[in-house]
């Protein structure tokens, strides 16, 4: 007996269409009449066909790729996709795995030239309906913008919606805070200072979070406060995400938002922001960013630097909650902490007495493939999680809720992690040969022969051997991991100096060694 998957979709933007339940009944009846065994019914609720982020649809395609079924059955072709391009791509994908698309209401399949033409006509009609509906919806949204009617979405701090009229109105209390923020900024208070002042009074953002420099900056840049609203900065593209487009003067609606900040004051703040914008001074590298955690509160340490003093800039690591006055952990001298970690790595791994022990134990672990399958599955999940994070931050950036600089920084960090994970996955899935002691010695000798004081070499050492550093006021708890062998070694490194800014090293580096 032939087999099939069924698929149904119910859109919130259509008033008259069959429910998911009705579509399923029709598909089951169709399969029964045609002696087809329905293996599973997939359904997505509240999503349009123009959005390819349909979880159940994607799950169905993934299963169909495995060649488990002969057909995919839909109630109507517009449930499958609303434009011919997407439909053709997906039908080609199904056909490559021997799967045909069937419709309950349209008596077509992929077999004959006539059916191909008929299917194209029907899909073209569905695509026309979808685009026409979208155009009418946009017309309504533009009219709402002109009238100041709420279109949905997240309102800026200082505004509320009248539940009866759906008009956007000023929230008097929040608006007073907005005005205070502008006044503080024009009185030469920085973003961090303003955020701290609000947090000290227990004030929260619209989402119930603490104020940060980032939220203050976004508020000061928001043109809605002077009554200007840009509608249609982005459009939905084929994969369902948003894509920024060039601003169009036709989208600019003057004074459609109730005015909280007078245009002259807003422009004064804008000019001040432009004048205060960093001119791209020298950037300082921090070896241990992402590795250092605070023992007191568990937050990450971040790199920071002082203003130049006598032609010297002092680098520090500070708890990320320190400036928000949520943690009183001491500031740590960056040069001292980095030197401590680098020296500890060298002393631990780059001495002849311990290397042979690590090599022998490591080879046993490396050549034992019993736990490879579990690790491979774990790596795949981590890579998928990174993919999802990239999608999420892209959506946030395109919705203009994240600056370009912050987006690129997060994107690069996630991609770096993905590269490492994919390298390990490739090794575990493709390496068949067993490493010998000679191979490992050769690799380590390469490291030892190429020791230098460059940032790049130190960064390589940190990424290879360091797992994390937990900082207390008087101690550094350093956990090393030899990634080649996946063997962890924990050590407690005490800084016997009572001065947290001391440059005294906890360890003396061993000289480079040659393994014979």
From TrEMBL:
**Keywords for this protein:** Coiled coil
Q: Where is the signal peptide?
A: none
State the source organism's domain of life: Bacteria
Coiled-coil region list: 369-424
| InterPro entries, per database record | DNA_bind_recomb_sf (IPR038109), DNA_bind_recombinase_dom (IPR011109), Resolv_N (IPR006119), Resolvase-like_N_sf (IPR036162), SSR_resolvase (IPR050639), Zn_ribbon_recom_dom (IPR025827)
Q: Does the keyword Membrane apply?
A: no
This chain's source organism reads Dielma fastidiosa
Residues in Recombinase domain copies: 156-280
The terms under GO molecular function for this entry are: DNA binding; DNA strand exchange activity
- Residues covered by the Resolvase/invertase-type recombinase catalytic domain: 3-148
What is the protein named? Answer: DNA invertase Pin-like site-specific DNA recombinase
What the entry lists under PROSITE patterns is as follows: RECOMBINASE_DNA_BIND (PS51737), RECOMBINASES_3 (PS51736)
